[in-house]
Design a protein that fits this description.
Blueprint: E1 4-8, H1 10-15, H2 20-35, E2 39-41, E3 45-48, E4 52-61, E5 66-75, H3 77-80, E6 86-94, E7 100-105, H4 106-125, E8 132-136, H5 140-152, E9 158-162, H6 166-178, E10 182-185, H7 189-195, E11 198-201, E12 222-226, E13 243-246, E14 270-271, H8 272-277, E15 287-291, H9 296-313, E16 317-320
Parallel strand pairs: 1-7, 8-9, 8-11, 9-10, 11-12, 12-15, 13-14, 13-15
Antiparallel strand pairs: 1-16, 2-4, 3-4, 4-5, 5-6, 6-7
Amino acid sequence: MNAELLYLSGEDIKDLRISSRQARDAIVAAFRDYAAGKAVGLPKLSIDTPSSWFSSMNSVSQAYGIAATKWIAVASDKESMGRSRVNGLICVSDYKTGSPVAVLDGNYITLIRTAATSTAAANYLAPEMPESIGLVGCGLQALSHLDAFVDLHPSLRKVYLFSRSWRSAEAVAMAAAEKHREPIITKDPDMLVRKSDIVISMIPGAPDLESFLDARLLQSSSFVSAVDGGRSWRSDRLTSFDRLVTDSLEQSVSPVDAASRPLKHIVFNEDLRHLTSGSSESSLRSRTLFAFRGFAIADLALADLALRQARALGIGTTLPR
């Protein structure tokens, strides 16, 4: 039995300086393994309580020699009492022996993983030389997606921003300006959708949320990554999309409505396994929706990347078991 565990805190993972390209390449490689049967990922298991929900995501990779589970807890605004509403940990075991080898902070890994998943899909689905991107929601995910998409598409010049918080929008605008992109803050989501070649929607769930984004307004060749699962997009307008793609068809069959309930009138027909394995048909001009909840294979890929870099750099804390 392994007598020691490597612990990587959120600050440790930041110190690894994982690049957007490294994260994206790791996601693509892991889904190729998944498509080839070299890795296994299971759909999320969740438990809802009146004040919180808890979820586990399990995966294993023979190629990487590890198994991983991510445990996530999400508290209501009332119960979080000013602390982070979302908290996660990733536990990693040796593939052959089953011995636990590491524990990683899940929050920062999730931040990197989510943007990397968006760009992994965009690499196959987005217009070739997009010039504009719209960010709907301006929290940490917006900053992470800005980094990831500027790396993937240097052709981007304009960054449209829509947020309920003007201060948050200004923070993302400043980050865009520092990357020599033109930030445009707007209170008109319809204008953002019309003007953007790429749209990223990142609206958190809320009891009073009403879907407000209209897919009919998208350009004929455009890409949407719905980090929110699609809850911010009007369900009666989703038929305007030519392609509907997700990260795992095994886990998700359709986008969700404003209350995060799966829609019944429209379904996904492709996932990242199809894209990365080359079994997906390309389309030169299409409106494409990539809506996803986050799949265990992606977390395993980032955990493996973080552990390899941490060991190479001597970062992390060794704990007795």
